[in-house]
Amino acid sequence: MLNAANSGHDQRGATLLEMMIAMALGLMVLSAVIALYMQTARSFHQQHAMADLQVRGRMATQLLSEELRRTGFWGEIMTPSRSAECSNMTKAVDIACALPVWGGTAEQARALGLVPKSATTLDDGTARPSAVVAVRYADHGNGTCLTLDAGASPPRQLTLEPPCQGDWHYRAGIYYLRMVDDVYSGERVPALYVNQRSASGNYSSTEIVRHVEAFEVEWGRDETGDGSVNRFYASDAVAGWKPADWDQVVAARIYIVMRSEKMAQPMPAREFLVAGRSIAFEADHYQRRLFVTTATLRNTRLRSAHEF
Asked: Where are the domains of the chain?
């Protein structure tokens, strides 16, 4: 009977105190696992957003750089002639004036008819840079045929009238910012667009990349004729430039402020130096990065250095 009593005593269940201690320890371990998981998930989401931000920013700057490097190339024609009417900037945007590149603000571009009315800065009341860049050149693509107007005075003016004389085609693109409705976030977000000329002569706008919060370009002019930049000018400083001034541009410094998709955790306020101007962003749920690159307008620089 003594052995049976001892056996029953040895098989008794856990006491209430022991259960409470075990549950407390279990909750502590579970809380630590959940906290670790949440931290890992936030870190992964943040790294993914930064990687996506990097890809989109590099894509935008690389595209603009490549376009600017090609601008001012007219096939076998190194220096097309201009008429006296080209001194008027409203006429200088015509193909006959062979203006290789143009830059300015959205308001100036709208006045010249280069961009639609939707080209605007952010609609949140801030005054962030919203530059417009127009590039033009000849290539072997599918655009409108580019040739010479042999009957014009002076000769060697560019024209887009058929028939083709050779296989060069006209390429024109106007890059600008506009606001778009984002289905994913349900908000209006800023995006970089290009207004391109088709083979039929019509212009249509195409989105390149979203979440571009600031876009500025500084234009580097060769004012001594040696092919090197003497000074850079921001978009708001080139309003009075004529075609002869744009012919001196041999480089362009591009500034783009990109933001990520909306983050779960708040991000601190940021401040960026864009073309010598401080641009502040308040604390919100977006990561941001400034992308800066300088592109050489090799065709304009070649003509300037060799006096073509």
From this structure: 32-305
* CA of residue 112 relative to chain centroid, distance: 22
> Which parts of the chain are beta strand (E)?
101-105, 131-139, 144-145, 147-149, 157-159, 169-182, 187-197, 203-210, 212-221, 231-233, 249-259, 270-274, 277-281, 288-296
Task: Answer whether 236's CB lies under 8 Å from 199's CB.
Answer: no
Bridge partners (DSSP) of residue 133 are 103, 175
Six-digit token string for 156: 């060697």
Which of 308, 303, 134, 118 has the alpha carbon at shortest distance from 219? 134
pLDDT, tens only, 268-284: 999 999 998 899 999 98
Q: How many CB atoms lie within 10 A of CB 111?
A: 13
Give me the residue label for tokens 């003509």: 303
Tell me what percent of the chain is helix, strand and coil, each rounded to the nearest 5. 30, 35, 35
| Separation between Cα atoms, residue 112 and residue 77, nearest integer Å | 26
pLDDT of 9-64, one tens digit each? 555 667 877 788 888 888 888 888 887 777 776 776 777 778 888 899 999 999 99
- Give 231's pLDDT tier (boundaries 50, 70, 90): very high
DSSP letter at 13? -
Strands 277-281 and 270-274 come out as antiparallel
Residue 279 has which token pair?
Answer: 């641009």
Q: How many CA within 13 A on the CB side of residue 20?
A: 3
Q: 157 with 82: CB under 8 angstroms?
A: yes
Handedness of CA 136, 140, 142, 147 (dihedral sign): positive
